[in-house]
Design brief:
It is an enzyme of class 2 (transferase). The chain has 2 domains: about 230 residues, P-loop containing nucleotide triphosphate hydrolases (Rossmann fold, 3-Layer(aba) Sandwich); about 90 residues, 3-Layer(aba) Sandwich (Rossmann fold), CATH 3.40.50.2300. Helices cover about 35% and strands about 20% of the residues. The strands form 2 sheets. It has a 9-stranded mixed β-sheet with strand order 3-4-2-5-1-6-7-8-13, sandwiched between helices. Strand 7, helix 8 and strand 8 form a beta-alpha-beta unit. It has 13 helices and 13 strands. The termini are far apart.
């Protein structure tokens, strides 16, 4: 789905949908209260958010995996596999599976880390964690499982975008919230705020997180070759993510000139017709190159990959000591 424009403010459409948000709220409360979580034999770190749409969880999950590996641990990532057809538990193999099989984000994570951190998909998170442990995992990174109460978490991390925050602070469908801010924060052990290097944390968010351990994270491009390709070039950009403008802003921050763009719904599965339209729009805009996100690129048919570039990204800790302390307490390492 596309992130609705009315989620950004408390207008008429948002207000009319408030009764449905009440039912959503009741369902989220009952699910948390009526489910008895299962504890597995290794620590579980959950990386999630309170809102629908992208907030930057995936690069943070990969960076946490890298930090844990440097501590001598063997983390495995367990994801729901949203958008994929397979139920799991299934260990993602880029040579065997497509985004249609396992979902775009799990496939992207498996490709991004060259499979140094195994990635699993499982609609049932407990079964996914158990399969990973049987395969040698000594710590589980639960990707986007904050609202799933079936698996006991040892550390729960909330990821929040500094500019987007919680938008109109209303629950789905009136707003982007998956649960109330108050209830979500009660279960959070730490908050990671994604921001630009020269930004301070939004004062409104800082006030909301006043009682929590908070650190900031910067999402940066990981490939200098692709960065040089962008400078002063006319770029046609397209993206199927929750907030496409974040991607376009990143390109512009790298001195690209956006001559045209096309938004698709989040987790969109591209067809050849879609890509032919993108190529036509780029040609009409006299673009020097076409760029998309790393998550979108894994869904591009092979026949089009030589015509489209992507921008790999990674998370950079603004306070690495905060991260090391958080992980060391959980793993018993120093």
């Amino acid at each position: 789905m596309r992130t609705p424009e009315f989620w950004r403010h408390r207008g008429l459409i948002s207000t009319l949908l408030l009764p449905l948000s009440g039912f959503y709220y009741l369902g989220s409360i009952l699910r948390q209260k009526l489910t008895s979580p299962t504890r597995v034999d290794v620590p579980v770190i959950c990386i999630g958010n309170l809102t629908a749409g992208g907030s930057g969880k995936t690069p943070i999950t990969l960076s946490l995996a890298s930090s844990l590996q440097k501590m001598g641990k063997n983390p495995h990532i367990v994801s729901r596999g949203y958008g994929g057809e397979q139920e799991g538990p299934l260990r993602v193999s880029p040579s065997l599976h497509s985004a249609r099989d396992v979902g775009d984000e799990p496939l992207m994570m498996a490709l991004a880390n060259s499979q140094s951190t195994p990635v699993w998909i499982s609609k049932n998170r407990v079964n996914g964690a158990k399969a990973a442990i049987k395969d040698g995992a000594d710590i589980i990174l639960l990707d986007d499982g904050f609202q799933n109460p079936t698996l006991q978490k040892d550390v729960s991390i909330l990821v929040v975008d500094n500019k987007i925050g919680f938008s109109n602070e209303r629950l789905i469908p009136s707003g982007p919230l998956r649960e109330s801010i108050h209830n979500g924060l009660k279960r959070a052990d730490a908050v990671f705020v994604i921001k630009q290097p020269d930004e301070a944390i939004n004062p409104e968010l800082a006030a909301i997180f006043a009682t929590k351990a908070v650190t900031s994270v910067t999402i940066k491009p990981a490939d200098e070759t692709n960065q040089s390709e962008l400078k002063s070039k006319k770029i046609f950009a397209f993206a199927g993510i929750g907030y496409p403008h974040k991607f376009y802003n990143t390109l512009e921050n790298l001195s690209a000139q956006i001559c045209g763009s096309k938004d698709f719904p989040d987790h969109y599965q591209y067809t050849e017709d879609d890509l032919e339209k993108v190529l036509y729009m780029a040609q009409k805009a006299e673009a020097d190159a076409i760029f998309t996100t790393e998550k979108d690129f894994v869904k591009i048919p092979e026949a089009y990959k030589d015509k489209i570039s992507y921008l790999p990204i990674h998370a950079v800790w603004d306070n690495s000591e905060f991260i090391n302390t958080l992980l060391s307490k959980l793993t018993g390492t120093t």
